[in-house]
From TrEMBL:
Subunit structure: Self-interacts. Interacts with FtsZ.
Region listing for Disordered, in residue ranges: 405-430
Taxonomic lineage of the native organism: Bacteria, Pseudomonadati, Bacteroidota, Cytophagia, Cytophagales
Cell membrane recorded as keyword: yes
Compositionally biased intervals (Basic and acidic residues): 417-427
InterPro entries, per the entry: ATPase_NBD, Cell_div_FtsA, FtsA/MreB, SHS2_FtsA
Listed GO biological process terms: FtsZ-dependent cytokinesis
Name the UniProt record assigns to this protein: Cell division protein FtsA
Function: Cell division protein that is involved in the assembly of the Z ring. May serve as a membrane anchor for the Z ring.
Family membership noted in the UniProt record: Belongs to the FtsA/MreB family.
Length: 451
């Protein structure tokens, strides 16, 4: 068992999730032992980007506290995921002439080439967050997967350059700094890359696969082929789009639409008879409203058809429509919608499977996170033990400042003995209690309003 503990923090549009875990080494493989999980409703994030720092900080504090209490550690550093509708990716070539041409190519040469790519100019208001090599060239010989150990003078590669708005990266940094005790970032990683670490197999990535992470605010697409990331795209439609459609189509309030989606939603209208209804509360002094469940399913199915068509268009645009033997792997919270596989298969004509996190040490918390909604958070934990691309060490630090800061101890540490803890425990407060009540978690499902 590895003593190192890593915490993944997924800052999403609908939830903020913290997972603490450590790697357990077996004879021929490794698994992840989940030590603690914290999940809180997200109120300060829209379309994958932080729009309200104070609300996001509050949610981060609660998620980190819950994960820390369960795992009995004080959390000082996290691997954090990011996404957003303004994420962009482009392909670009780069090359260097080696200073010692008589020697084999080394990892230092690759680092030199990567460093040059990070210094490329980008659009105003953007910054480079990842530089991901695809295929290398050595002395103009193309198609080299790993150049280390080859002889040559000129080293080049085609890169995937991923950029994000500077303001979005700075907002994430501010949220972590303002969290209780201050959180440092060990790594920051594009969310679909993290999700891929949790749900994709090496065979799928080599054969060709499209990971489609359908979150609350965005749908993130990452295409792998020959074990290399080839394409990244972010669509600004996802689970919240389903909620909005139900709100408009069924003429209900936003929170009622969310309940209809999560408790009764399916992408197959045949699951319900024509006369099956659910009664939702009316406004003040107004009677409850009956909603046909078949209508809810029709709305979900139509929106998912549209989303599947958009995903297919991105795969075609990338040039991989006939190269993905592994088909499409759906993950993210919306991937749990019953019938979603059928919809995507009918629209794209490709093999579809739901990406459930695996390679977990079986315990009660592992059962909790064996859900597509936790793919990104678990992938961020895995990122503390293995590289997304073993050929490079590529992580940049978006939102950083130039001023040097003194180093601090950031690794998770065991909590002090109970006698050393403050006598007065943190209080949730009146507004926290009200918020919990309004989420619907305390609503009696046996009442005549939601049946």
């Amino acid at each position: 068992m590895d003593d190192k503990i890593v915490v993944g923090l997924d800052i999403g549009s609908t939830k903020i999730c913290a997972v603490a875990g450590r790697m357990v080494r077996h004879k021929d493989h490794a698994t992840l032992e989940v030590l603690g999980v914290g999940r809180v409703e997200s109120e300060g994030v829209a379309k994958g980007a932080v729009v309200n720092i104070n609300r996001t900080v509050e949610a981060i504090n609660r998620a980190i506290e819950e994960a820390g209490n369960q795992s009995d550690i004080d959390i000082g550093a996290v691997n954090v995921g990011f996404s957003g509708k303004d994420i962009e990716a482009r392909k670009q070539n780069g090359n260097i002439t080696r200073s010692s041409p008589g020697d084999e190519v080394t990892s230092l040469d690759i680092d030199h080439l990567l460093g040059d790519m990070y210094r490329n100019p980008v659009s105003p208001g953007k910054e480079i967050v990842h530089v991901l090599p695809m295929d290398f060239t050595v002395d103009n010989e193309p198609g080299v997967e790993d150049p280390v150990g080859r002889n040559g003078v000129k080293l080049g590669a085609e890169f995937q350059i991923i950029t994000a708005p500077v303001a979005a990266a700075i907002n994430i940094r501010k949220c972590l700094e303002r969290a209780s005790g201050g959180l440092q970032r060990e790594q920051i990683l594009l969310s679909p890359l993290a999700s891929g670490m949790a749900v994709l197999t090496e065979d799928e990535k080599r054969a060709g696969v499209a990971l489609v992470d359908i979150g609350g605010g965005t749908t993130d697409i990452a295409i792998y082929h020959r074990n290399v990331l080839r394409f990244v795209s972010v669509l600004p439609w996802a689970g919240r789009s389903l909620t909005d459609d139900i709100e408009v189509g069924c003429k209900v309030l936003p929170n009622q639409a969310e309940i209809l989606k999560t408790k009764f939603g399916t992408a197959d209208p045949t699951d319900y008879k024509f006369n099956e209804v659910v009664s939702v509360p009316g406004l003040v002094n107004r009677p409850p409203k009956d909603v046909l469940l078949k209508n809810v399913s029709i709305i979900i199915e139509e929106r998912l058809k549209e989303l599947a068509a958009l995903v297919q268009a991105e795969i075609v645009r990338a040039g991989y429509e006939h190269k993905l033997l592994g088909g499409i792997v759906l993950t993210g919270g919306t991937a749990s919608t019953p019938g979603i596989e059928r919809v995507f298969n009918r629209v794209t004509g490709m093999d579809i499977r739901i990406g459930y996190p695996d390679q977990l040490e079986r315990n009660a918390r592992a059962d909790l996170v064996s859900d597509p909604a936790y793919a990104t958070a678990l992938g961020l934990v895995w990122a503390g033990f293995k590289q997304v691309d073993e050929r490079i060490s590529f992580f940049s630090d978006p939102g950083r400042v130039v001023v040097e800061e003194p180093p601090r101890v950031t690794a998770p540490t065991p909590k002090p003995a109970p006698k050393e803890k403050p006598k007065e425990p943190p209080k949730r407060g009146l507004f926290g209690a009200i918020r919990d009540f309004l989420t619907g978690d305390n609503y009696n499902p046996d009442s005549d309003r939601y049946e």
